[in-house]
């Protein structure tokens, strides 16, 4: 539920304190506007991917890109602040998530790629996306380009560039989720809701870790996204790193200081994962990916393939999203069973 607006009288007192006793009194309409905008809360300044950004009021027509980003808004109860979302149809079941009503209430703007014309047509005042989560210099769709047409942007923290070319990631994946929840809580004046979500998610993670494999029992785990000649996987800054490690696994690509990266199969074979986690999305489904892994000759002697220890998680479980904590619990239960 949206927080109740504070009394307009408080707006008057705040204005007098800020401008001095000789200041002009605000009009009744200004008082009403201040009350609607959460007087006493704004302006707020947050840090997003190294940039300080100030908001004088809550954005009213947000366009989101991709499932994880969209569900962050829904988890915070911010559907009324959204113009719509952009998402392809290959992102799994959207009807059984806790915030399924968000999908019912919010307009699905496009099942194709997000672009400048779409967000202009939607009269967006803010685009919540990320580098390689909609924003791309190659497509000409960037925060700088949107700024030129008067549209603000908020970058998904998992996608922050870290100064090494276009490598992404500046914090642990769950910290990125908690950072975005808290930042958005401040931007939209729903800080209590954001803190409640963070506390709930931390509790979920703590409970999952309590029953997860520990010490020498921690199995080596590889995240397989897709790719035949070379696999796309997760480095230390994408969601799977925290999901794997907090579920009791030893993430074999934890030394890669990037988010989603391509590696060579020889590296996978050399590190010999005992469990492979499949990212299920797109035209190539989980069963097809399993079939490839089981039949690809270079992987024949990899422990996970020999012992058929392959676990599937949905795309929305693995990218930064409010589904991450539950995914940790699911994987922890599988790893515990697989190693017992």
Features:
340 residues, 14 helices, six-stranded parallel sheet, disordered N terminus, globular, alpha/beta
Topology:
Elements: H1 8-19, H2 28-36, E1 44-48, E2 51-55, E3 62-65, H3 67-75, E4 82-86, H4 100-105, E5 108-110, H5 116-121, E6 126-131, E7 134-135, H6 143-148, E8 152-155, H7 173-187, H8 191-210, E9 220-224, E10 232-234, H9 239-246, E11 250-251, E12 260-262, H10 265-271, E13 275-280, H11 286-295, H12 303-306, E14 310-314, H13 315-318, H14 324-339
Parallel strand pairs: 3-4, 3-6, 4-5, 6-7, 6-8, 9-11, 9-13, 13-14
Antiparallel strand pairs: 1-2, 10-12
Helix pairs in contact: 1-2, 7-8, 8-14, 9-14
Task: Describe this structure in a few short sentences.
This protein has 340 residues and is α/β, with parallel strands linked by helices. It has helices at 8-19, 28-36, 67-75, 100-105, 116-121, 143-148, 173-187, 191-210, 239-246, 265-271, 286-295, 303-306, 315-318, 324-339, and strands at residues 44-48, 51-55, 62-65, 82-86, 108-110, 126-131, 134-135, 152-155, 220-224, 232-234, 250-251, 260-262, 275-280, 310-314.
What would you note in describing this structure?
With 340 residues, the protein is of the alpha/beta class. It contains 14 helices and 14 strands. The protein has helices at residues 8-19, 28-36, 67-75, 100-105, 116-121, 143-148, 173-187, 191-210, 239-246, 265-271, 286-295, 303-306, 315-318, 324-339; strands at 44-48, 51-55, 62-65, 82-86, 108-110, 126-131, 134-135, 152-155, 220-224, 232-234, 250-251, 260-262, 275-280, 310-314. Helix 7 runs antiparallel to helix 8 (191-210) and helix 9 packs across helix 14 (324-339). The protein starts with 7 loop residues before the first helix and ends with a helix. Residues 1-38 have low confidence and may be disordered.
